[in-house]
Amino acid sequence: MTATEPSGGTAPAPEDRRQRKARQTRDALAAAALELILERGLADTTVAAIADRADVTRRTFSRNFTGKEDAALDFVRGDGARINALLRARPTAEPPLLAYRRAVRAWLADRENPAWHVRPDMRRLLALLDREPTLFAAYERIRVDAQEESIRIIADRLGTDEARGMRPAVVVGAAAGVLTAALRQWARAGEEDEPGAADLAALVERAYDALTTEAASAAPHALPTSERT
Question: Which residues contact 107 (CB under 8 A, 6 or more apart)?
Fold first, then answer.
């Protein structure tokens, strides 16, 4: 791999020992939070218990996360960052929606760093989001942060101001919404039929196909003359 990514960005510098240790601590806390919430439920999981399972102090927890919900969903933040890195690396000539779709496809196909959905009990966690308002709020904050970064990336690709341009926000809103819809449909599937990465990838592809079909059918030229505006 060269130091320069296809989009012109630079590859991240290798981690030093201190950075690697900090990342390992954060990962241990995130894993402990997720495990305990799935084992005990959100209400019966404390920050002290998470820190104890990760073998660190509560102060170390507070340096890394704002709360147990934030810690348990850190993998969502990480995968959002990975999708954005893949989006940033897409060829600049690709249309934005296609670039986002292919970034998501590459994320789902990555076997070296598998996407979160291949972890055990992910359906249980998604179901818990629907029952726990504070967990859902944390999830939404993480998604919004990732989407705002996606908008900046698309705006940069298009050479527009993301604060004023409509197109980047529309592309990201639609593309991220499709991914969320596919994930929720996957989560509602039966536990006895646990699909692997390829199954979710196929579901996501069908969801993007549905979006492009609907968008084409809603174009003014596709409507009867009397219905065009």
Answer: 79, 82, 83, 86, 115
Give the tokens for residue 191: 């536990």
Q: Are 164 and 99 in contact (CB under 8 A)?
A: no
SS3 157: helix
- Encoded amino acid at 49, one letter: A
Mean pLDDT, to the nearest integer, of 190-201?
Answer: 59
10 strand-pairing partners: 4
For residue 212, what are the CA distances in angstroms to 53, 65, 164, 174, 205?
46, 38, 25, 10, 11
**What's the rounded Cα separation, in Å, for the pair 178 and 165?**
21
190: left (phi over 0), alpha (psi -120 to 50) or beta: beta
Which DSSP letter does residue 118 get? G
CA angle at residue 105 from 172 to 81, to 5 degrees?
55
The distance in angstroms from the start CA to the end CA of the chain is 50
Residues 6+ apart with CB under 8 A from 78: 116
Residue 28 · residue 56 · CB < 8 Å: yes
Contact call for residues 129 and 136 (beta carbons, < 8 A): yes
Kindly report whether the global pTM for this prediction surpasses the value 0.85. no
- Mean pLDDT, range 137-149, rounded to an integer: 95
Question: How does 93-120 read in b/e, with b if 16+ C-beta sit within 10 Å?
Answer: eeebbebbbbbbebbbeeeeeebbbeee
